[in-house]
């Protein structure tokens, strides 16, 4: 701090408190709504204080879902989301650390071409190639499968760049020492590079886990079988029907269930999260 | 292309290492993208039996289609408004946090978490608050004398999606601004303070110019975010309505392709989107290179 200005400090605190209130309010409202019974909304205005139906609502959502709107129970959907998030995160990290290793530690024909092909994927988000990607996945018989949910999302230019950038900063002496000790490339990779990259992998994992959990359009397209629904798309299905037959308390309980896991990951791994976010984008 | 001074001599191994990523890239990225380009030059008859090559006909039709031109406009309004709102709010919060010593960490944690909320879930949350029948904000706005209804008024719908999209993006911008502010040497601010510059003057003459690379970078990132990552928000709130007023490009591609089954037109729209992404990526990378010398 440059100088002592109590009034300015007070204004800053005020700004932050208002800002935090704006950020927290939508979720606060959802949590409150999820603790009420279905009839508490009939008055036309949402209550602002917690009700007493929390346990009933959450156990309904986790165990049975809303049968009238064809929403399956949330517990299996959350497991699907977890599998998808883990699959996307681990898959991306695995394939990009391998290709970054190949690009940095070997010299071979078409090295630059490979690099540029990976780079291009940065410019092709799922949204601009949905129809043909959907067709490829369906031709491969991957509709309604975990493979179909995960595989089209695991190529990642950013993760490859991050590892490449990091490998370039690893001292050459380590490689020379490993070669003097006659370690092969894979031994060098497993015993030196992977342990050195642990923090980077963890930071990347936090970002990719959130990214995988929050996928919406892709699961919406490739799953028609409720056994493979993920929780984020399940919410949307439910909310769309809720407008004609409002079960706001249950919809909001579902919203809370869908947002809590990734939010907890971000809050508890905040340091890694910030590192991953700032480094992958630059 | 950079590589190490010493490398491993293996000839086959690097290809094996690259194979998984290359396979995924070719099968799920390059091949579909090529297919998109190809079918953007084709038209299918209604029964899907015959495909004819029509050159740029799909494209010229798009630009004559008022819905597409409207969608371009809606996308521009939406992405610029979202970028401005979320960058502005993030900058104010970051400046305030920068003055805090002990409480900075707590505030940061409280502001950062919406990054982890899925766009579709953020959409449902804001839709709930502005729902014309039971939404708390819709109720308050109506009390204040304005008939809020985002299912009927296109301005209301646009405001709703901008709010939802900005809410989710503030945390991201905030982190980058905090990092940018921490990178400004304290000696500069102290020198200005000794010369009698107050906080406002310091902000406009020192902090803001030094933050401008960060701000520009965030502007590009936010426009990309608003254009491509907000599908869930639109689908959960307005679904492009009312009267196509919030039908942004990404949503229209999906609607025309999967619901309208107009493959040629959807492919041409995808191709145009690719051009936009490529342009934005180039801008972003050129900028990052320049920033290194800054």
Provide a descriptive summary of the structure in words.
- Chain A is mostly helical and 282 residues long.
- Chain A has a single domain (34-281), classed as MetI-like (MetI-like fold, Orthogonal Bundle), CATH 1.10.3720.
- Chain A has helices at residues 6-33, 54-63, 74-105, 111-121, 130-139, 146-150, 157-169, 172-180, 185-196, 198-213, 217-222, 231-242, 248-268, 270-281.
- In chain A, helix 2 (54-63) packs across helix 13, helix 3 (74-105) crosses helix 7 and helix 10 runs antiparallel to helix 13.
- Chain A is globular, with a radius of gyration of 24 Å.
- The two termini of chain A are 28 Å apart.
- The model of chain A has no long low-confidence stretch (mean pLDDT 85).
- With 294 residues, chain B is mainly alpha-helical.
- Chain B has one domain (57-185, 212-293): Orthogonal Bundle (MetI-like fold), CATH 1.10.3720.
- In chain B, 73% of the residues lie in helices and 2% in strands.
- Chain B contains 12 helices and 2 strands; from the N terminus they run αββααααααααααα.
- Chain B has helices spanning 13-39, 57-64, 66-99, 104-112, 119-129, 136-143, 154-182, 186-194, 199-228, 231-237, 249-259, 263-293; strands spanning 42-44, 51-53.
- A two-stranded antiparallel sheet of chain B has the order 1-2.
- In chain B, strand 1 and strand 2 form a beta hairpin.
- In chain B, helix 3 packs antiparallel against helix 9 (199-228).
- The longest helix of chain B is centred in the N-terminal third of the chain and has 34 residues, at 66-99.
- Chain B is globular and about 75 Å long.
- The model of chain B has no long low-confidence stretch (mean pLDDT 86).
- Classes of the chains: A mainly alpha (282), B mainly alpha (294).
- At the A-B interface, helix 1, helix 3, helix 4, helix 5 and helix 8 of A face helix 1, helix 3, helix 4, helix 5 and helix 7 of B.
